[in-house]
Design brief:
Blueprint lengths: L38 E2 L12 E7 L3 E3 L10 H14 L5 E5 L8 E5 L1 H9 L4 E7 L7 H11 L7 H13 L4 H7 L5 H11 L3 H7 L8 H14 L1 H12 L5 H10 L8 E2 L2 E2 L1 E10 L2 E10 L6 E8 L2 H25 L1
């Protein structure tokens, strides 16, 4: 698996703190924190990306992902492949980091190369080479996001990535117009669609992130509409049909207009049941699922629904525990009859 290469951008970033031509680029901010980092010569493709620079070996325990990293979705399968590459081939290109501030002081924040950091954690790699930018402002979320967009060039960010970034920037007080400019979007209307996608319930996000190319802002708008009109269960089944079966948008629109059928989960004889509780079930390396409690059509009764996707080994363990609980429940019910 080829590791991500950090390239020099095509556009100058002088506004991000780059020194003027011929200016002294030495820094008087002192040495790196006491993390046993070894300074190495800078790699040529990284010269003048933003400001003062050096390439060092940094303990993985002293690395954290930057909240302004433009890539939010990293699939476990991808991380495992990068981990295998690091183990077999070593690190080919340095990370791009900057010194943390506030609660992150003493750490280095990863703007480019986060998948490699996760891969290194997976194989217990002690250190990683990193390009340290000491001139970037750690509080300037817009400029940090711009840099991250340039660094993450192995693949385009998906709409879910962009939606999560948009929400983060808006929460920091930036306008939709500023977000649109940073993410290179046509208008603030596009920002609104991305926000709607990233704002879907957790189980929708967990399922959709495995299909980054099809889990788009336009699909998110349909799914959001389906939730508003017919509830989460109907909308989640519709999302599965759109992503797994590649149901086209025109058929999605027709399905929303028609509404739930008698066979729709969470319904009884054509009438949709009211949810009375429940929670999402996250699982490692799998979409997970949800447990829900519904009010039955019969007064005084409840309908319990559990649907979850888990890895084989976890499924075996979960099945044994559920079987034990349900067996005890059945026996108790018989004793009370």
């Amino acid at each position: 698996m080829k590791q991500r290469v950090i390239k020099r951008p095509d556009m100058p970033l002088t506004a991000l703190g780059a020194p003027a031509p011929g200016a002294d680029t030495s820094t008087d901010k002192g040495e790196l924190p006491a993390v046993s980092a070894t300074t190495q010569p800078p790699s040529p493709p990284l010269l003048h990306l933003a400001g003062a620079e050096e390439v060092v070996d940094i303990p993985v325990s002293k690395l954290r992902v930057s909240p302004c990293n433009a890539r939010k979705i990293r699939l476990p399968k991808r991380v495992s492949k990068i981990a295998e590459s690091l183990k077999n081939n070593g690190q080919k290109d340095p990370l791009y980091v900057y010194p943390g501030a506030g609660d992150d002081e003493g750490y280095f924040m990863v703007l480019g190369g986060e998948t490699r950091r996760l891969g290194a954690l997976q194989i217990a790699l002690p250190t990683l080479k990193a390009f340290v930018d000491r001139k970037v402002d750690p509080t300037d979320a817009l400029n940090l996001t711009k840099i991250s967009n340039i660094l993450n060039d192995s693949a385009d960010e998906c709409d879910l990535d962009r939606g999560m970034v948009a929400i983060d920037l808006l929460e920091k007080g930036h306008t939709q117009g500023e977000v649109a400019e940073v993410l290179e979007l046509e208008s603030h209307t596009h920002v609104q669609r991305l926000i709607k996608l990233a704002g879907l319930p957790k189980r929708f996000i967990d399922f959709g992130q495995d299909y980054p190319e099809r889990f788009s802002a336009s699909l998110g708008a349909y799914i959001s509409q389906a939730i508003d009109r017919h509830g989460e269960d109907f909308a989640h089944d519709l999302l599965k049909a759109a992503l797994v079966d590649e149901l086209p948008h025109r058929k999605i629109a027709k399905a929303i207009e028609a509404g739930p059928s008698d066979k729709q989960p969470g319904q009884e004889r054509g009438k949709r049941l009211r949810r009375d509780g429940g929670f999402d079930i996250p699982t490692p390396d799998a979409p997970g699922g949800r447990y829900d409690v519904y009010k039955s059509k019969t007064p005084g009764l409840k309908v319990l629904k559990l649907q979850v996707e888990v890895p084989d080994e976890l499924a075996k363990d979960l099945n044994e525990k559920l079987t034990e609980v349900l067996t005890q429940f059945i026996q108790t019910s018989r004793d009370q009859q």
